[in-house]
C-alpha cells in the first residue's frame, strides 16, 4: 500500500509541474504579444523612388568596356559596350 501512495504522489507532483510549466510559458507569450498602445498607421502618400544602377568595367582586347547592372530589378540593363573617351 505504501508503494501505491508514493507512486500516486510522484505522478501528481509531475503532472502539476508540467501544467505549471505549460501554463506559465503560454501566459508569458500572451503578455509579450500584447500591444503597447501604439496604433499602426499606413503612410499617407506613396513616395516613388528612382531605379538604381551600378556600372561594371573590364578591359577586353585592350579596350575599356562597361556594362550597367540594375540594382532595383537585379538584371543586366546593357551588354558590354566600348567606353569612348
Q: Your description of this structure?
A:
With 85 residues, the chain is of the alpha+beta class. It has two domains: 1-31; 53-82, no CATH class. The chain is 36% helix and 24% strand. The protein has one helix at 2-32; strands at 53-60, 63-70, 75-76, 81-82. Strands 1, 2, 3 and 4 form a four-stranded antiparallel sheet that branches. Strand 1 (53-60) and strand 2 (63-70) form a beta hairpin. The longest helix is centred in the N-terminal third of the chain and has 31 residues, at 2-32. The mean pLDDT is 77.
Brief overview:
This protein is α+β, with helices and mostly antiparallel strands and 85 residues long.
Structural class: alpha+beta
Q: State the share of residues found in helices, binned by percent.
A: 25-40%
- Tell me the total number of β-strands: 4
Number of domains: 2
CA-atom Rg in angstroms: 34 Å
- Overall geometry: elongated
Report, as a whole number of angstroms, the end-to-end distance: 101 Å
The count of helical stretches stands at 1
Low-confidence runs of at least 5 consecutive residues:
none
Amino acid at each position: 500500500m505504501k508503494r501505491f501512495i508514493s507512486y500516486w504522489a510522484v505522478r501528481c507532483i509531475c503532472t502539476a509541474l508540467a501544467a505549471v510549466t505549460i501554463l506559465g510559458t503560454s501566459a508569458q507569450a500572451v503578455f509579450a504579444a500584447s500591444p503597447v498602445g501604439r496604433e499602426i498607421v499606413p503612410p499617407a502618400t506613396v513616395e516613388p523612388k528612382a531605379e538604381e544602377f551600378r556600372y561594371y568595367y573590364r578591359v577586353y582586347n585592350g579596350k575599356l568596356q562597361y556594362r550597367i547592372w540594375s540594382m532595383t530589378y537585379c538584371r543586366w540593363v546593357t551588354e558590354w559596350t566600348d567606353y569612348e573617351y
